[in-house]
Write the structure tokens for this entry.
Amino acid sequence: MNAPTKPRLAFWTDAEELECASFLNEVPNVMTFTFQSPSGALFSFEPGQFLTLELPVPGGTVHRTYTISSSPSRPTSLTMTVKAQPDSIGTRWMFDNLRPGVRIKAIGPAGRFSMMQNPADKYLFISAGSGITPMMSMTTFMYDSGRQPDIVFVNCARRPSEIIFRERLEHMASRMQGIDLKWIVEEPDPYRPWTGYRGFFNQLMLGLMAPDYLEREVFCCGPEPFMQAVRDALAGLGYDMDRYHQESFGGPPQQAEAVPDDIVPQDDAAAEVTFSASGKTAKCAQTDTILATARAAGIPIPSGCAMGICGTCIVQKLDGQVHMVHNGGITDDDIEAGYILACCSRPIGNVTIDL
């Protein structure tokens, strides 16, 4: 049904499925999918957050984490812009099967990669490839506010024709002076002159694009090698790295949670995990994760990144002690409340999980 419906004055939760409303080819191997709530509920999230989708691929369900590319200032729909790699399974399924009317399960929203968590007067958004999606969400949110932002928006792509959201961003920049776009490409498109930056992100480009970078809050998203290059460039120029924020599902951030020395798992030590709701108990080694142990016992736990970043596999620990080294996918408040991330938590002795 394509007729517009009146939004319901309630907010969507992940207890309800998402329904695909439309899809759009952005650039090669990149598509944007627009979702609505079947009940007409509105969407509330922080710009830059992500959802974990439950995708029914052949061979079994997989969970994949994608950043929301739309803004909560436009709450009647929600979009995710995804890029298919040669070995993609979940994303390729979306390309081939996700069409208007199809409903899928989603978990979230989640994540703390948002300017709402780190408010500032001036921002520097640096991204590569599909890492542009959280930057698009945050920029759209500030644009929709009607107030003049101060954003230097840097995006790196292989060619100009592969810059995602280029036309939409240039439209916003043409109507608001505080959005300063900088494109960097590795090479021009054939027979299409290119007068912008060319090459790879470096300190010289940074100084030319944002001379006042020391005054800006930096958000970075892209492949891990790219983000490492950005970190190195900023650190080498004396930037305060406490004001640097990054998001990635392709590699771990530089630091993980500090873990006390007295709860380090031992290779030859046995452990036991009890799943209270299921009535199952599984024996394992202390070096096995709660996620692996649950799966071996036939207890499914949704998971995404498997590196402690996305937070999809959060479960409640009722008793016992675990060794958890995460990468930002869980808050201190959740930890204090007894929650853990199953993908990066290892049981020390006997542990009881609410599953």
About this structure: The chain has three domains: 8-110, 123-247, 261-353. The domain at 123-247 is CATH 3.40.50.80 (Rossmann fold). The two ends are 39 Å apart (CA to CA). Confidence is low (pLDDT under 50) at residues 250-259.
